[in-house]
Every structure is written in C-alpha cells, then in structure tokens.
Amino acid sequence: MAGRGPSRQELIRQQRRSGFVGRQGEQDAFKEALRQRPEEAAQFLFHIHGPAGVGKSTLARQLESAAQEAGSVTAYVDETVADVVEVLETLSRQLAQQGAPLKALDKALSTYRQRRHEADAGGAVADPGTAASDEETGGEGRPSPSSAVASRLGLTGLGMIPGVGPFTAALDPNQVALGADRVKAALSARLRSHEDVHLVLSPLQALTPVFLRELGEVARDRPWVVLFFDTYERTGPLLDTWIRDLLVSDRYGDMPANVLVVLSGQSQLDGHCWGDWLDLVTDLPLRTFTEDEARRLLTNKGVTDAGVVETILRLSDRLPVLVSTLAEGRPASVAEVEDPSGTAVERFLKWAPDAAHRAAALACALPRELDEDIYRTLVTDEHGRELFSWLRSMPFVTDRAGRCRYHELVRTAMLRLQRQRSPERWHDQHARLADAFRDRRARIEEGAVRAASPWQNERWRGARLHETYHRLCADPHAALPTALRDLLDAYAHSLTSLRRWADIVAEAGRDSDAAAVRDWGRQLQDVLGEPEHPGLAALALILSRGELDTPGQALAYALRGRQHRRAGLYRKALADYTRAIELNVEGDRAFYGRGLTYRLMGRYEDALPDLSAAVDTDPTDPLNHAERGLTFEFLRRYDEALADYDRAIELDPAFSWALANRGDAYRTLGRYDEALADLDRAIELDPDYTWALVRRGRTHQAAKRYDEAFADFGRAIDNAPHQHWALVHRGRLHRDLTHWDEAFADFDRALLLQPDNAWTLAQRGSAHAFTHRYDQALADCDRALELDPDYAWALRLRSQLHSDLDHWDQALADAERAVTIAPDNMWNLHQRASLRRLTGRHEKALADLDRAVEADPTNAYHRVHRGVTHRLLGAHDAALTDLTRALELEPDDGWAHYELAVVHHARGNPERDAQAARAIALLTPESRDTTSWDVVPTRGNLVLVHCLTADWHEADAWLTDFLAVGPPPGRKRELLLAINSLAQVAPATAEHLSRLGRRLEHAFTAPARATTPQP
Question: In angstroms, how far is CA 797 from the centroid of its own chain?
C-alpha cells in the first residue's frame, strides 16, 4: 500500500521554501544557533523586526522550517491569541501534533476552564458557603493582613480572575483587599481545593510551572524546542513580561536550556520590560529587499525582462510582499505591469490570469479569516469556485491549518479599492458574509450540549465575532447598537472577550471608514489599555455615551454592579444593581447580584427579597435556589434553607456545592446522619473537594467519631498541603481532645504557611490559654489583634484571658469592643454579661443575657447565667424559671443543679437537698476527668455545693483540689465572689464561708501554674 502523500499545505510550504530568496544572513545566524550546544548557547532569543511588508512572518516561517528539518519541535503563536492561557493552549496543541503532548498542562488547562466557569456561574463570587461562627472564619468579614498588604502593592490577584480588572490603583486598597478575601473565601467554598482557588485567582502562577515542567520533558528528547511569537507588535503588550520571566527569572521555574524563542513584530522591544536583558537578544532587523535580493527573486519567478524588472522594483519599493505579488503573474512586458491607476494591488489584479482569478482574489480580501466554506459564500461562479487552492498559494496569503489570512498590507489596499469602487457591492458582500457567520452560529447552537449561555462556546464566539465585524462593515449606523450590546455580553463572559470585541469594532471602523465606529473602537481600546481598572473604565465609557437601548443600559449597570461587588465597594454595587432593576432588566442577574451584595454586607433580611426575585425570575436555575438557601441558613431559618437546597439538588443532582452546603446545614442542626449522607455524595462527585472534606470532618467531630474526623482532615491537608485552613481545623480537634503536642504542631505548621493569619494565631492562643500558658496566649491574641483590630473572637478570647489573670478592667474593655464590632453575636454579649456580673453591674448583665437568650432560646448555658443573675438581684422566681428551663434543655448540667439548689434554699424549699445531691453526683466524676482541659470550674462548683449542704470537710478537701490545679487568679477571684454571695443566701454558714474565703485570699499570692492542668 502506498504511504500517505503530502498534503496541500505541505506542498505549498515546500514550494515557498524552494522559492525563498534573501535574508541569508538572518537564516545563517539562526542555523548557527541550532548548531550550538545548549549549555554553551549564547543565542537563544531572536527578535525579527521591521515595517509591514518586509517579510517578517515569511522569515519566521522559514526559520520554523529550518528548525524542523534540524530535528527540533516547534510551536507558532500569532495575534489570534488574547491572553497567556490561550498561548499555553496553542503551544500545547501544536506540540502534541508533533508527537510531544503536554498531558499535565492539558489537564490543568481543562480544569482551569471548568473551575473558572463554576466560579463565574450565576454572577460568580459570593460569600462562603457556610454559616460558620466567627471562630471558624476568623472574624466578621475584614481583609486578611496579607491581602491588605498585597492590595497596596497592586497584587491582590483580582486582576487574574477572567472578567475582573485589577482595581488597586484607582480604588481604596483596604476595600480591594476585602474584595480579594471575599473572592478567596467564596471560591474556597465553591471549589474543590486550595489548588483550584489558586488556579482561578492566579492562572499564570498556577499553569506556567506546569508548562515549564512539561516543556522540560519534551526538551529532554529533542535537540531544540523552538517557540515562535509572530505579529509581536500586537501580542507583546500581553506577553512581554511573561516571556521575559520565562527566559531570565526563576519566578515560574526553570526553562530548559535547549529552548529557543523567536519574536517577530514591527516594533522594537519595550525598553521598560527588556531594558536589563537586551544584551541577550539577537537582533534581526529587516528592511526592504536589497536590489540584488529583489532581482534574484524575480529571476526565480521567471521575470527576466529588464524593463519589467525595473518597473517592478520601482512600483514595489522593493517591499518583499509586493515584489512577490507583482512577480506572481510573470508579466512579459512593461505594459502588463504599468498602469495609471496607481496601486500595486490594482496592477496585480490587472495581470491576474483572468477575470475569475481577479474577482476571487478581490472578494476574498473582505473576510478577516478565510476557509473554504467562506470562500464559496463569496465566489459563486462555476470557474471561480475551483480557485481556492490557487488563492492559498499566493505570496500574500498565509495558510494556517486550512484557515487563510491576507497580508495586512495587501488586504488593506484591496479593502480600500472595493469600498471606493462599489459601495453597494461592498455592502452586499459584507451582509452575505455576516449572514454566513450567523448561520454558522445557529448550527453550532443546534449541535452543542445545552449550556447556560452560548458565549461559553469558543466556536460560537468566533462566529459571532466575525458576524459583528461584517455587520459593522455592511451598515455601520444600523449595526452599531447591536455591536455595543455585544460588547456587554462579551464582558459578561470575560475581560478577554471584551478586548476582542473592542478590537473588532476598531477594525471595522477603520476598514469601512465609518467615523462613529472608528471613534468607538479607538476609545474602547484606550480605556482597556489602562492597567488599573479596564473593565470599569469600559463600562463607564459605554454608559456615558448614551447609545444603548434600555435593556443594554440595564445590563451595563448590572455588570458594573458585579465589578463593584467584587471590589468590596458594596454601596456602589447596590446603586448600580438598583438602577439595573429600575430599568426593568430581564433575567435574574441584577436581583441575584444585589442579593449577594446585601448578604456580603451582613444584611440578610435585605438580601432575601432579591434572591427570591432571582428564584422567581428563573426557578430552573439551581444556583438561585442554593444561594437563597444559604441566606436562609444565615438567618437561622433552616426549614426554608433546606427546602431551597432540596430544590437546587433536584434540579441538578450532581450540584456538589449545594450538597455540601445542605450537609453543613444538617450538621448545624445536629442531624449528623443526614449531613454525612450529603457530604459523602459531594465528595463522591468530587473526591478532592477540600471544603466538603473539612465540613465532613467537623460533622464526624460533632458526632464524636474522632477517628473519621481525623481521617477527613488528613485527606483535606493532603489535597491542599499549602493551605492552612484544614490544618487549623485539625488543630482545633486535637486541642479539644487535649492532644496538646499535636494541636500545637498543626497550629505552628499553619502559621509557617501564613505567618500573619489572625485566625490561626487566635486559635493557637486559645490552646495556650487552655494549658495556662498565659504569656504565650496573650502574645498570640495581641498579634492577631494587631493584624486585625476588629477581630471580635480574638477580643473575646483576650477578654477571657484578662479575666483569668484578674485584670477585669482590661477584660471588660475587650468585651465592650467585641460587642461594638458584632453586637448581635450572643457569645460576645455573654462574655460582657459575665464580666458585668462579676464586677457588680447586675442590671446591665441582665440586659445582655436577655438579648443572648432571645437570640438562642434553646441555649441552656445562657439560661443558667441569667438565672444566676436573677438570683443575685433577689428575683428568685425568675431565677427558678430560667434554671428549670435550662435543666429541661441540659438535664446533666451539674452547675445548673447547684444553682437551682441555691434558689430552693433561699426559698426554703425542701427540693434543695435533691438538687444538691444531683449536682454532686454529676460534678464529682467530671472533676476527675483526665481528658478534660479545664477542671477548675468543676472543682470550684463542688466547693460551693458542699458549702451549701454544710459539709465543711468535703468543702475544704475540694478547695484543696481546686488550688492544686494552679488556677489563675481570676478564677480564684470568681470563686471567692461566689462564696461571698452564698453567705447572703445562707447567713448561718458565714463563719465557715469566711474561713474558706481567707484560704482563697491567701492563695492569691501564689502564681498560676503555667502547665497542663492535672486531674
């Protein structure tokens, strides 16, 4: 069987290589570089540059062929790429075609596209998928110090999210940092792992090291790998810094030594970027052909008549593309070249073989990109339909995998000629091309898997882009409003798409000579070139010009609201979303966005109507239900939250985020089996879903399945070894189980990863507090609050530390500050109430406890404290009510039984003895529990209950045990106050109580023991 013959593209390339003339010095320099030993290579970066038409792309292709013939693998990138991610996709695809696949990179790129889509779904960034306590989240929504510092440096990472520009220079840096943390927190909840979050937020930092590792594997088996970047005058602003860092820094990893890079463009390299490295660049400046080179090319083409040669040299100015074009028809006389019409293009068309050839060449200049289907749309006569292969072989046509592009110099001249010669034909042909691309879009939509928007389909976007160009060229005035609306839809997809549409508007304005379109395109390109906030600037421009219809204005305001929300500028976001809603925006975007903004502000009641409106507008979108469910959860309306989660999962049974959130809601409700079922399913769908693993670990922990909890935390840590979050949760479990060494190991490791993380510092501080290492505990709290002054949980912890150390004024100041920051947090209220009670401010303490009980009526702990406060105020009936209710909620609370016994004693009720006996039965084993981290209050309560029953021998013994633990002075002071208050209820015992009080007062001179409490 005969082997596969050469393809048409291969034959064309062979023909051009064999006829290539000139640039011998440049070719020799490149071939010499290919003969170098990589470790000794002095030339590894070539820069071809010169004006249009001098043959830069032709030389680059010639060098590519030379590299392939020398056994190298090559890849070629041009202006069709819009960002580095597309560059990586192009390089990977071309290397794979040459037997050098980059499989890990392909997998990472695929994951990036999928995760980005998930992150952007329904408006993208929301708050974390959990109603976690402030202990878990590290505070009430302030930026982490690392994000604050990064925002001031312009490095928050927001600019790396597709569709989000970096706002740092234009906006308040603390607000930007808050937006960055919101993004990170939201993505941590939505995505599977820290690596996924990093991938979405910083794709270059995540993908480029993978590319370099894979490239190293390819380079190991090849003499050279050569990467070409053509039309660099267009792509350089996007790629300069990235390519420079690849070659000369170790930011992303090591570049293999046997990789050559060739840049080709009209401009010199940017001195700001390359200034320190220009000595490494092999400069290949191209100018017009020398006369000798031009004559040799003409001879190779069979043009030898001296008059014809002189005429071509004069008319072409020795530009290679024009010399080749004019020579292609092999004119035999000057008359065949000379023409009074004045342009080389007209002369070329005159001597093309016949009218069909001329018509085909001219018509096919209209599309920006040409394939055989588009060719047949334009060329309809029978003879002309067979000329596609001829056209592809022309010197001014570049063939890229079956898609052809005219040389810009030739195409511009042909477009001008057609527009001036026949405006009517110009309109008709562009309209025909626009219809062809419209039909192509429709076929893509019919064959595509159902998606939220066709804008997610790359082929669909390409067809829409070409259609927009041709509509603008055909009828600029009529097509401009639709093009402006397309700009918004493009921006809704990504900032990269918006840049493409802005470029196409500018190009259509230039090619059609339409002033209004050209002006729009130029202004859009200008604002999108701003480094700080291109998206917001583009939206401001579009809105300020007043040329959008009402739905378009609504969409623009909704998109700007999204940008402000992501930047943490919530008031501006609300204003934009509200304006979009007032304009009767269709769809749920503005309601959804405003609802998320309210929720990010902690205004859950305000968020709910908007998220409900989003559900009503599109009840089939599972994300709308899931987000409303999360808001219900924040409002503690769990039945409604679960109903929304149920509906979201019904609509999308594989919606792992909704499953994980429903599971976490079940955990909060104590329905652990249901929680585990949902979390198991979420993890089954996404085995590396780190957030779900941590929540399942916390569910196992709550259910006292500690082995399973440790297993889940361990898996989460293995999935994300550079993420501190799972480590802190495992450390907390170790802390709660009194595994002190393991707890501190996890906290310390987490702080190595993020030394300035206030949450982790506070968690370690709490472990120090539990082990009576008060100096270390205060140091961690002080550092956490230095980093985050409004961290209420850390303030509450430090308040407790000061209380333990008998610094009650400082303790009360911290408690007051915590309540000011988070006034609705019942634990902040409880802490302040306790300190107010201990310092004799009983009425104020009662007000705080009333609010705490109102916030959580089923919390027995608050009820006990309020009962004690009522007792101290002499309100024994109210105390009896609270303590009785507390024991209904927690029947085995020994302290509550003791306090109820005190109330019965004060009222003269005989139930006192039964309650006291029950308290002793419950408290005694607790006081000997070797797994408890704090037996101090239990032993203190046993002192009190034996005092109440006048068992002074046991009271003395328990006071000895209490003091043996080495309680901090504040705990001694608290027990002393309790003994003194008991004297008011049982005055007959005053002498004995006074003796015990003196023992405690003497103990104040003994320092607190800074060791783990002993049983």
Answer: 32
